[in-house]
Amino acid sequence: MQQADPQSSTVPATGHFRRLAVCLLGLLPVGTSLWSQQMFGEVSFEQFIYHLRFGRQGLLKTDTDSIESFFLTGVLLPVAAALLLTLLLWMADRWLSGGKASQVLRRNGHWLIMLTGVVLFLAHFSFDDYLESLIGPDVFSVHYVKPDSVQLTPNGRPRNLVIIYVESLEGTYQDSSRFGRDLLEPLTRMQQRYTSFANYPQSKGAHWTIAGIVSTQCGVPLKVALLPSPDDPRVRLRQFLPGALCLGDVLRQHGYENVFMNGPDLQFADMGLFLRNHGFDRVYGAQEWIDAGEPATRMRAWGLRDDRLLARARTELDGLMAAGKPFNLTILTVDTHGPKGLMSDECRRRGARDFPDIVTCTAGQIAEFINYIETRGWLDRIAVLVQGDHIAMENPIHDTLEGSANRAIFNLIATRPAELPLGNEITHFDVYPTLLELAGLHPEGGRMALGWCLLQRCNTPAPPADRIAQFKEGLLNRSPTYETLWLPRTAP
Asked: Is the omega angle on the peptide bond into residue 339 within 30 degrees of 0, that is, cis?
């Protein structure tokens, strides 16, 4: 019978506590990775760092269910695992023989556990891609056209804009071969009457909600520095892309009123900061709805549901039309948010029982909102854009979605007469100059920031055939030009 290592019993209690602490330091990141996978699926390092640094104070108000699940998966599970591994290391001290391998395990096992945990964490968030972006070629500067340098020519009377970002809405939901029915059928019928682009790939730096909105409104991706110095403008100014000229800024300069309405708290991801910094006169989130009389008890998870949000938006639209001033009404829905979706009273009344039903219910409510505009004869004065903010993340039918080879963001432009698209492909960044054209402000040359106006009446030269491939390969690479967008804007 093998004898225990005589040194095994000499490990003091403080040594075991040190082992526990080191194991926990390695396992907490693993717990965070597991929670992130459960809630959101694949998350980039840029996205993780953004939410770690910006708008954290809004999370507790936005989704308390996610906080509870994080406590279970991201904290309690790592603590339990660390206790178990520390116990196993203590048992190794007592029972393993004095061979070289066992000595290494006893002396360094906790450090190996910590190192493994950190490596798994960085691998989950694709840290290697982030490192590559620091040394890759500056793709952004090659394609960027400074909006201040673009002449905007009024083209007829100003036209109002209604922009509806639908959480995680992608065209794959229309594939009846996958789901047994077209989950977006009411909106699919509208695509046949109006304008849409068959290929709307998700761009890097535009793959979560605030990033998708920034990219379509400013024509640039959203990315952040990992470890900014005290002189970094993002720390010093507490402004959101102050050097960027975005849609709200341009429209305000031309006399538009900009209004934003969504369900969650505006502090989350610094959504309110971005909007107020870029031309929006009025913004509405969970706290504003509580102040307006919505029950606070119903704001626990992601704020106001879509049925109430769209009812409020319809009232707002009536008031804006009555005022007669040009406007941009931007709406962001939430019910199709992962990981389970959110059931509104209206969807429950319509018989919705599961996540696919929520998707269909949301599509129906958006179609009804457009029909409301259409039946009042306003589509000659209002251009309506409906699009997903990004493709779907983790949800109950995510595996089915991932089986599609060509996942694309759902999009629809409703106008009278219908617009003619330039080609069948669009990116997040192209939405910016395209919206300006729809508003009656023609960008000379059809370019703004990274975007190309993709309506035939823009007379825009065809974009380079490989630009989307270039964006995919290196758009988030370090760019001095991009970094100037975090400095105050100067005159052209």
From this structure: yes
CA angle 392, 244, 423 (to 5 degrees): 55
Q: What is the DSSP string of 146-198?
A: -GGGSPEEE-SS--EEEEEEETT-BGGGG-HHHHSS-TTHHHHHHHHHSB--S
User: Which residue's entry shows tokens 């983790």?
Assistant: 394
- The string over 361-376, giving b where at least 16 C-beta atoms fall within 10 Å of a residue's C-beta and e elsewhere, is bbbbbbbebbeebbee
Please give the structure tokens belonging to residue 9: 């019993």
Q: Would you give the DSSP letter of residue 301?
A: B
Q: Could you tell me the two tokens for 262?
A: 């969504």
Contacts of 412 (CB under 8 A, 6+ apart): 187, 190, 191, 194, 195, 196, 384, 385, 386, 387
pTM of the model: 0.85
**Of 310, 338, 7, which Cα lies nearest the Cα of 165?**
310
Query: Which pLDDT tens digit goes with each residue over 390-443?
Result: 999 889 999 999 999 889 999 999 999 999 999 999 999 999 999 999 999 999
- The CATH homologous superfamily for domain 145-486 is Alkaline Phosphatase, subunit A (3.40.720.10)
Task: From 73, 125, 123, 42, select the one nearest 398 (Cα to Cα).
Answer: 42
The torsion angles phi and psi of 170, rounded to 5 degrees, stand at -130, 160
**Extents of the domains making up the chain:** 8-134, 145-486
